[in-house]
Amino acid sequence: MSMKRLYIASLLGALVLHSCMFELAICASNYTDQLALLAFKSSINFDPNNVLSNWTKETNFCDWFGILCSRRRQRVTSLRLRNTGLRGTISPHVGNLSFLQVLDIRNNSFHGHLTVEFERLRRLRKLIVQQNMLEGSIPVELHRCQNLQVISLEGNNFSGNIPKDLGTLPFLRILYLGRNNLQGTIPPFFGNTTSLKEFGVESNNIYGNIPIELSLLPNLSGLYCQYNHLTGSIPRAIFNKSSLILISLNMNAFSGNLPTTTGLWLPNLEILSLADNLLVGEIPSYLSNSTKLTWLLLPRNLFTGPIPKSLGNLNLIERLKLEGNQLTTEPGSTQLSFIIALTNCTSLQKLFVGENKFSGTIPNSIGNFSMSLQVLDVSECQLMGQIPKEIGSLRNLNELSLAGSNLNGNIPSTI
Ligand SMILES: *[C@@H]1O[C@H](CO)[C@@H](O)[C@H](O)[C@H]1NC(C)=O
Ligand SMILES: *[C@@H]1O[C@H](CO)[C@@H](O)[C@H](O)[C@H]1NC(C)=O
Ligand SMILES: *[C@@H]1O[C@H](CO)[C@@H](O)[C@H](O)[C@H]1NC(C)=O
Ligand SMILES: *[C@@H]1O[C@H](CO)[C@@H](O)[C@H](O)[C@H]1NC(C)=O
Ligand SMILES: *[C@@H]1O[C@H](CO)[C@@H](O)[C@H](O)[C@H]1NC(C)=O
Ligand SMILES: *[C@@H]1O[C@H](CO)[C@@H](O)[C@H](O)[C@H]1NC(C)=O
Ligand SMILES: *[C@@H]1O[C@H](CO)[C@@H](O)[C@H](O)[C@H]1NC(C)=O
Ligand SMILES: *[C@@H]1O[C@H](CO)[C@@H](O)[C@H](O)[C@H]1NC(C)=O
Ligand SMILES: *[C@@H]1O[C@H](CO)[C@@H](O)[C@H](O)[C@H]1NC(C)=O
Ligand SMILES: *[C@@H]1O[C@H](CO)[C@@H](O)[C@H](O)[C@H]1NC(C)=O
Ligand SMILES: *[C@@H]1O[C@H](CO)[C@@H](O)[C@H](O)[C@H]1NC(C)=O
Questions:
Q1: Residue 27 maps to which CATH number?
Q2: Ligand having the closest approach to the CA of 86
Q3: pLDDT tens digit string along 294-325?
Q4: Mapped to the 3 state alphabet, what secondary structure does 181-242 carry?
Q5: Separation of CA 106 and ligand 3 centre (Å)
Q6: Would the CB of 192 count as within 6 Å of ligand 6?
Q7: Cα distance between residue 70 and residue 360, in whole Å
Q8: Which residues, judged by CB distance below 6 Å to any ligand atom, belong to the binding site of ligand 11?
Q9: Count of domains in the chain?
Q10: Which atom of ligand 4 is nearest to the CA of 92?
Q11: CB of 91 shorter than 6 A to ligand 4
Q12: Is 87 helix (H, G, I), strand (E, B) or coil?
């Protein structure tokens, strides 16, 4: 070995030795993890199920309940204490668990704030603190945890705005902020988190529009914005997004019409809820090409025109709720022709179409409705003629409402 190589080797050795000593003393030692976990325990003041009873110095912390460590370095990678009834605050010492990848303390009674020390968890992938009593603002600094894939803060009492910097997290797949006390608007910056699949801000005080940027996310599959104060029209791109499975925008103040252009398609959509908004126009017939649709919920809007006959193609539809709109009978028809059209929906359980502007007779083919039908509500419409006796063949029907109509004759004994 040449002198030069020997020199380099010894230099490297010294460096390695130096950083080991440095690490042992200060940062990377597993002692820090023990200390951090004990501090976490000490800020918990009620442990009804004694899950932390074996968190003691006498035992290796990697064997403590809820803890997983990396094999090689024996550092804490996962802290999972779900559904354990723990009450207390989250110690800022958690920020010292520098190898932590998963923090899951869902469904406990943690209160207080999510401290800025969390920003030091650079390896953190999952932050799940849903269903607690945490409050204060969502720390903006969380965006420094650039490996975050899942953030679930839902079901707490977080307030303030949705930090726009969370839109810079490159691997974020799931963001659940629902059922808090958040205000402000949805930052268009979330258009930058192209990996986002699930976006939930339901039951807050969010106002403004759904940013177009959000509707352009390539893999968005769940959009939960119900129970807020959102306004404006629903971005058109939402209605041609093959990745979408669930759209829940009910209880807002969305207005305008749904796009009616042909060539729009939601092939994977299973649930569409736009209930309780101010939407106008017709029910778009392309929805009948969403053959996986199980729930189509559009009640209490201002929809006009007839129910598209093509909805009868929805083989998997279980709930169809269209009540409280201004829907009318097919032009030129004297009967409720949608009843004929929907008889092929063999999974239909609940059909609510009351409080609309239909007029006409109930067709006899009502008896051809799927045996799965349990609820039929056509109340507060201008129904005429008699109740067909065929209705008696719907053996599973347990709720029938025809109130507020101009029906005449007897109630058929078949009922
Ligand atoms: C901590 O590190 C030491 C030295 O590497 C090792 O002996 C010990 O098992 C590690 N784990 C714990 C939990 O102390
Ligand atoms: C602590 O409790 C858990 C669950 O009861 C058990 O799996 C684990 O082995 C215990 N650890 C120690 C060090 O006793
Ligand atoms: C929450 O935890 C409690 C036990 O503390 C359990 O009874 C309850 O089922 C859990 N709730 C959910 C939604 O997991
Ligand atoms: C751990 O975190 C606490 C609070 O954030 C801090 O005071 C302490 O110095 C940190 N370091 C160690 C080694 O515990
Ligand atoms: C939630 O936080 C607000 C302050 O932001 C407070 O006024 C309210 O009482 C809290 N609600 C609950 C249920 O703790
Ligand atoms: C994120 O999106 C916003 C608004 O859409 C844009 O102005 C900004 O430049 C984007 N930032 C990054 C880092 O891509
Ligand atoms: C979208 O999902 C596909 C399939 O899971 C994946 O290959 C792709 O990388 C994702 N796109 C982004 C931007 O994350
Ligand atoms: C809908 O999206 C498809 C691709 O996913 C595209 O080819 C088509 O042009 C779009 N239709 C409309 C009307 O924008
Ligand atoms: C439904 O899909 C078929 C086949 O792709 C297409 O021809 C038809 O125009 C679509 N219907 C609507 C209303 O978009
Ligand atoms: C129901 O399906 C059958 C068989 O596919 C078809 O012949 C009939 O026209 C359909 N009825 C309606 C009302 O769409
Ligand atoms: C539908 O109902 C009508 C009237 O009750 C009946 O004549 C017809 O055979 C039924 N069609 C099917 C496919 O059951």
A1: 3.80.10.10
A2: 3
A3: 999 999 999 999 999 999 999 999 999 999 99
A4: EECCCCCHHHHHCCCCCEEECCCCCCEECCCHHHHCCCCCCEEECCCCEEEECCCHHHHHCC
A5: 9
A6: yes
A7: 71
A8: 364-365, 367-368, 390
A9: 1
A10: 5
A11: no
A12: strand
Q: Which of 313, 317, 344, 364 gets mutated to test ligand 10 (max ligand atoms within 8 A of its CB)?
A: 344
Beta bridge partners of 112: 134
| Pairing, β 76-80 against β 67-69 | antiparallel
Give the whole-angstrom CA distance, residue 354 versus residue 373: 16
Distance 259 CA to ligand 9 centre (A): 15
The answer as to whether 101 is a domain residue is yes
* Residue 43 lies inside a defined structural domain of this protein: yes
Give the mutation target among 194, 195, 216, 219 for probing the ligand 7 site: most ligand atoms within 8 A of CB. Answer: 219
Any domain includes 163: yes
Tell me the pTM. Answer: 0.89
pLDDT tens per residue across span 175-220: 999 999 999 999 999 999 999 999 999 999 999 999 999 999 999 9
Residue with tokens 């893999």: 219
DSSP helix/strand/coil, 280: strand
How far is it, in rounded angstroms, from Cα 213 to Cα 202?
Answer: 18
**CA distance linking residue 388 with residue 415, whole number of Å:** 10
Ligand nearest to the CA of 262: 9
Measured CA to CA, the distance from residue 55 to residue 41 in angstroms comes to 8
**What are the tens digits of pLDDT across the range 109-144?**
999 999 888 999 999 999 999 999 999 999 999 999
Which residue's CA lies nearest to atom 9 of ligand 1? 74
> By CB neighbour count within 10 A (0-12 exposed, 13-18 middle, 19+ buried), where does 316 fall?
middle
- Read off the tokens for 389: 């006796």
First to last CA, the chain: 100
Residue bearing tokens 């092939």: 267
- Rounded to the nearest angstrom, the distance between the alpha carbon of 313 and the centre of ligand 10 is 9
Q: Classify residue 389: in a domain, yes or no.
A: no
Determine the structural domain holding residue 56 and report its residue range. Answer: 19-310
Q: Which amino acid is at 106?
A: R
